[in-house]
Amino acid sequence: MSSKNLILRRIREALGDNPAQPEIPRDYRRAAEAPVDLDLLVERLEDYKAVVHRTSDISDAISRIVGDGQVVAPPGVPVEWLPRGSKTDNGLTAAEIAESDGVVTAAAVAIVETGTIVLDASPDQGRRILSLLPDLHICVLRPDQVVASVPEAVARLTPGRPLTWISGPSATSDIELNRVEGVHGPRNLHIVLVEEAA
Amino acid sequence: MSTHAPKGVGHLRGDEPFPAAAKVALANPQLRRNLQHATTTIRGKSGRVIAELPDWQELRSAGSALKAYTMANLPRLLEQLEEKVTAAGGVVHWAADATEANRIVTDLVRRTGEQRVIKVKSMATQEIGLNEALEEAGITPVETDLAELIVQLGHDKPSHILVPAIHRNRSEIREIFLREMPGVDPDLTDNPPDLAGAARRYLRETFLSTRVAVSGANFGVAETGTLAVVESEGNGRMCLTLPDTLITVMGIEKVVPAWADLEVFLQLLPRASTGERMNPYTSMWTGVTPGDGPQNFHLVLLDNGRTAVLADEVGRQALHCIRCSACLNVCPVYERTGGHAYGSVYPGPIGAVLSPQLTGVEDNSSLPYASSLCGACFDACPVKIDIPSILVHLRNQAPHPRSEKAAMAAAAYAMDRPRVYERAQKAARIAKLLGKRGRGLPPPLNGWAASRDLPEPPAETFRDWWRGR
Ligand code: SF4
């Protein structure tokens, strides 16, 4: 007998008592109750050590953050956002990505309640490696991408895509259970929150 | 053929019974200070972020019902998961026990021709002793979690589900790094950000040059074939993104029916475990994505005693566990003995009910007694596993004089402090309310519950009591 059949047979035998099929109570908060609170989003992002820039001038905000560093960006990020000398990811090597001073991406969804941004590898967010290796991640967020809660975010996302949920810079709680920023992922997370519809 | 986890492989059985192992830990005041500090910190953090959610109890009920639903429909959900993962370009393997899982993973790594794998912390691979199996095959497993790295470099054993090096404080970690980490800065301080920075530098090159990764999974969605890993440091993202081949070992109980169900667990898990509104990183992937991440994906579905747990009508809820470790952090026994005393990769209250069921009670017969039945674990559990009831149920299967001694010891820990004692009194009250009146409770708890008024806490502290024995 294959191990698959063996395991499935063991499970069916184990469930021989026909356990009840419970109803799932869905009376937790699922739908949006109020307009999203962008101020609270900023507070929650900052609480987990992300730096937030509220602006209507995306390229200005990015160039201030980057200074004279050099950034990479996925092909779908508008070139006018990017400082001169930026590299577009048309197949950069891991070493080239790791060497750059930062990465600029857009986002798919952001969650107020948890201070989370989610990337879904769309053309303006790029391959997962791109937002992983550089030490600085600049993420441009539009207000219409912001939802209040986790259930709303799950409903908006497409499960087949590679998804990365990011809540603050890389951190660990492994030393005496205190959150310490800065292990393997980007140690600096900047969110450019666009004030007017871009 | 027994459906329990086989002997001689993996880490579910200790070398000695709980009371003997606990005695070692109890004699180490530094260990107890580290543990007390850490668990106090985490309880405070967790309590604060849980209080922010007005619907925490509703989420717990949904999580609990979802897990019960999953267990009742396990064959269908596992086959659906297999179908979806396969359709998305992954390969699914079924492992009846630890030996088979180790063989599958080792063969897969061998076929790549690689000599080294990077690993992201996974309880399942620790349970089956995968690192030892890989080493025997000449393959070097590199643990990439900071805590696992501390454990690996310290030639030590993990002592907590979430924070395996919880028993080490910052100055001990610094000493381990200075002694064991090649190329470490000799001026390294014990400042936690500096310690984290040292791990970052040490592992960077390994991440970039290793072509096979092994992970566990927190959730596997049957409806979509999506796997999820919840983490903090970014080492998980490295392992799940950079290599050519990814091998994920997942217990069969980790399947989740539908995509939308993640909305429940992604709220419960981080708040209950690290006490964060959300952990820094969660990665989700579905099979293989051309041009992004590993192009070879293998999912190993692991039984290793889980079906034996499922067969027990009372005990099966232990399979609902999402490994948040909240029950460890509130447990008065764990706080005193630490994780090593439990002898298994699953310590604390969940370990006391899960390990004996995975191995068969006869192999872990003292663990069901490693508790004062105070009920704090039940209150803390985000999926409402009734650990005290399972403990009582298992005690009835393992009546055992040596174990009773452990029970005495466990109860005595609770008497050590008034706060803990209060919790025990509460448990005794609950038992009375349930009409159990001490039936099924071990001595001396049955005595308390049988009398109308609970006795005053004893004048003798636990340590005096222990020495006096
Ligand atoms: S039993 Fe509950 S509290 Fe304990 S680790 Fe599992 S989910 Fe968390």
Automatic annotation (TrEMBL), chain A:
It holds the Pfam family LUD_dom. This is LUD domain-containing protein. Coiled coil: none annotated. Signal peptide: none annotated. Transmembrane segments: none annotated. PANTHER family: LACTATE UTILIZATION PROTEIN C (PTHR43682:SF1). Gene3D superfamilies: NagB/RpiA/CoA transferase-like. Residues 93-194 form the LUD domain. InterPro entries: FTHF_cligase-like_sf, LUD_dom, NagB/RpiA_transferase-like.
From TrEMBL, chain B:
It comes from the Bacteria. Transmembrane segments: none annotated. Residues 396-468 form the Lactate utilization protein B C-terminal domain. The keyword Chaperone does not apply. The lineage of its organism: Bacteria, Bacillati, Actinomycetota, Actinomycetes, Micromonosporales. Residues 318-385 form the 4Fe-4S ferredoxin-type domain. NCBIfam families: LutB/LldF family L-lactate oxidation iron-sulfur protein. Residues 78-288 form the LUD domain. This is Iron-sulfur cluster-binding protein. Signal peptide: none annotated. The keyword Metal-binding applies. It comes from Paractinoplanes ovalisporus.
